Automatic annotation (TrEMBL):
Record membrane topology: Multi-pass membrane protein
Organism: Candidatus Methanoperedens nitratireducens
GO cellular component terms listed in the entry, alphabetical order: plasma membrane
Name of the protein described by the UniProt record: Zinc metalloprotease
CC cofactor: Zn(2+)
Transmembrane annotation, as ranges: 12-33, 48-68, 110-132, 148-165, 186-207
Species classification: Archaea, Methanobacteriati, Methanobacteriota, Stenosarchaea group, Methanomicrobia
A GO biological-process term: methionine biosynthetic process
Family: Belongs to the peptidase M50B family.
Amino acid sequence: MNLSIQIGKLMGIPIKLHVTFLLILPVFGYIFANNPPGFGFRDIGPLWFRYALGLSVALLLFTCVLLHELGHSYVAKKHGSNIQEITLFLFGGVSSLEDIPRNPKIEFKMALAGPAVSLLIGSILIIFYGILKVNIPMSNPYLRLMEVIGYINVVLCVFNLLPAFPMDGGRVLRAALADRMSYMKATHIAAYVGKMFAILMGIFGFITVPDGVWFMLIAFFIYIGASEEEKSTQVSITLEGMKMKDIMSEDVKTVPSTMTVEELVDFMFKHKHMGYPVVDGAEIKGIVTFTDVQNIPKEKRKTINVSNIMTKEIISTKEDDEAVKALKIMTTNNIGRIIITQDKKIIGIVSRTDLLRSVQLLE
């Protein structure tokens, strides 16, 4: 299920809003509207205006988060990395890179670019606030709006520079370590520091409940993020040098587009695979998986053919492509297998299981 909505493009990069962002936006608006002066507008009236200011702060905050991510993306694109999308989530934004550069100097620049943008925005707003407050009453809601956004950006910069991998500070730490040791060892250390930081933050959040609930949630996401990033890096490094032909299965089971869904279920049960290329004659028509079957009620499976449920967009690679490429394609497109073709004919197939088995053997 796709939980993100694309709202446009900047620098050629698709900008998406995750459903969690849409859920948290009114919550943030409520919090800012009811916080006391300093980081809120509780003393402002009428009520509708107070909530309008709170929602404005929430929207401007996530706009600044987007600019923060665009800072990372600009440096990444400048050094040849492809940015697939930027998604705004519950706790901020994420830039999806096709591949994180192994060059420590480039990663160092990329990691610092985002906090630098936040610091620049915050500094400019705070300076303007300092100039304007001389002649404008401190109670002016728009002046306070400028102050709040300014200080939040400075906090965003400082928070992101904490050495909690995979946050920006953690990536800076990995880049610094990778200059002195292997990239994998640097990742292990940075991930360990990130996990320890997350545990300490979680303990602090638990002690200070209910105010500390946010710390506990952030700690959870940092810990999971550090674990996933470490695992992903290990798999990528382990598969380096491996070709698709080294790990693909050449005995490819295919099904015709005219097969009924009920027959497909029996075929899956017999051959124990969860996905199959759909081939008519020598022509590849698509690919069908168990997920496609699950969407069809049992009573209708006799009358519906594979052609009605298969995915027609075929993602394939060549046998001499790097095995790491298959991992990136599967992760990016959220698929479980990829077809290997030569002269428009199927010569093999690679599944996530094949990749994981190869990693286990190589390790």
